[in-house]
Amino acid sequence: MNFLLETLQLIVLSIYYNAEAIIKCIIPTKKKDVTGEIVLITGAGSGIGRLMAVEFARLDVALVLWDISQEGMKETARLTKEKGSSRVHYYLCDCSDKSEVYRVAEQVKREVGDVSILINNAGIVTGKKFMDAPDSLIEKTLEVNTMSHFWTYKAFLPAMVDNNHGHLVCISSSAGLIGVNGLADYCASKFAAIGFAESVALDLLATGKDGVKTTIVCPYFINTGMFDGCITKWPTLLPILDPVHVAKNVVDAILTEQSYLLLPRSMNLLLVLKSFLPSKQSVILGKYLGAFNFMDTFQGHQKKQN
Q1: What is the pTM of this model?
Q2: 110, 118, 200, 263: which sits with the fewest CB atoms below 10 Å from its CB?
Q3: Active-site residue flag, 186
């Protein structure tokens, strides 16, 4: 195909896909049927992991819960059963440990079946400035927030590819899109998670496996206890998010096969501004939005989202 034909194709498809996106904003997208799917959620013992499990409990799926807290998972399982779920399985698993991920993944395949919706949600934050953070905590942040995605994808993606059916969900953060003062290791881990998830999504498309869908979730900070004490300068523009609201939106994004979910919607505008503003203007915008002081009132040292 020559230059003119490829350019024409680009223009026509660009117009079509932009029109499609506008229409989807006006007309609600039909939700897919996930009845019978096997949904695995890491970090399911508390926070939005637990709340997403409760949301999925209403959809007649088999739930697989992973966490490092046995008691947390028991409570999540109880709540999902109250909502009607009859198939709930939970496993102790430290997602930062590659060998443990592979071992527990094999157990899940034997006892439950091939996972068809994988939600990488487990995460931690040290809450320390870069030079004050012990090396061990920095490494742990990257192991949980980034490397665990590699190991879970390695474990469960092959079956999805073989069937050309499945859904990969990366729960990242707005801190994976825009740097935040005092969160160097956390931001690095979330930026990396997004880059990894985007690359795998392109790998799937390039190999024709368009039946395996991907969703990348980038919420602003959520009131799950992970960022206790932190406040937002302009709560109307950038509110600390309600975890129930986030969980419902994530499940809805999966059911409507959204590629990206940014919460709140104002994050979309900030991301656009970041792409073309001069660096000095980006700095003063960051100060205006409170990005330099967000962690000043952080309470605690290491918080886990699981």
Answers
A1: 0.89
A2: 110
A3: yes
